[in-house]
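Below sits the subject:
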Amino acid sequence: MEGNGEIIFDKLVYSCAFEKYRGHEEFIPEHFLGIQLSGETHAYHALGKTIVTENNIVLVRRNQLIRSMKYPSKEGKYQFLSITLDKETLQQYAIENKIVIQNRYEGKEKLFFEPNDFLQNYFVSLLPYINKSKEATPRLADLKIREAIELLLQIRPAFKDLLFDFSEPFKIDLVEYMNQNYMFNVSVDAFSKLTGRSLSGFKRDFAKAFGTTPSIWLRGKRLDEAYYLIKHKKQKPVDFYLDLGFENLSHFYFSFKQKFGLTTSEIP
C-alpha cells in the first residue's frame, strides 16, 4: 500500500502509510510546521540527511528541495501532520502587528524542537480535524495558522527574521548549487527559482557557466555519477536510479547505453 496525503483543510495535511515508501522530490515553496506522530521520516536535502523521529516537531524552511523516505513504526503505521505557514497569512500577520525585519535570518541549524508542552498541545488540538470529529471553517483554519506563528515567535523570537522575510532569493552561485542538487528530479523552472533567477535568466547564466543547456548537463552529470557508482562502488542501478533523478529503469538503461556505448553489465 502506498502512502497517502490527505488535505484536512486548505493548509493542514495528514500523511499516513502502513509500509515503507519513497516520497517524490518536492520543491517546498512555503514554510511549514510538522510533527512526526508515528514512524520516521528520512529527509534528504542539499545539506545532507535529517531523520525526524516520533514526537519530533520540525519547522521546514521555504524554497528548498527535499526527498523523503517514510518508515512506519514497529506497530506498523506512519503518520506525519503538517500545517503550512503560507506567505499571504504571514504578510497579513506582519501588517497587523507592525513587524519589520532588519536582517536576514542567518541560522543554519536543523530546525528541530525538543518536545514542548505548547507545541505538543497545539498539534493535539489539530487531531479532531483528522478524526473528522470536528470541521474546520476557513476562519478557524486561519486562526490555527496564526496560533502556530505566535508559538514559534514565543519559543524563538529570532524566527521573526525567518518567517517575515518576503524577499525573493538572492542570486546564488549557480555552479556550486547545481553540483549539490543535480540529483533532484524537479523542473528547470524550480531550479531557476531556487537560485534566485527568472527562467530565462537561469538558462542564460547556465549556458555561460556550463556551456550547455540544463537538461543536457543534468542528464550527463547523473549518468557520470551512475558510472562511478557501478564501476567503483559496485552498486546496482536498481538501488540508486531514483536517487539520481531518473524516473524509471528503462529510461536509465537507454540513456546510459546512449552516453557510454555500453550496458551497465559491460562496464569492466
Remarks:
- DSSP finds eleven helices and eleven strands in the chain.
- Residues 185 and 216 are 14 Å apart (CA to CA).
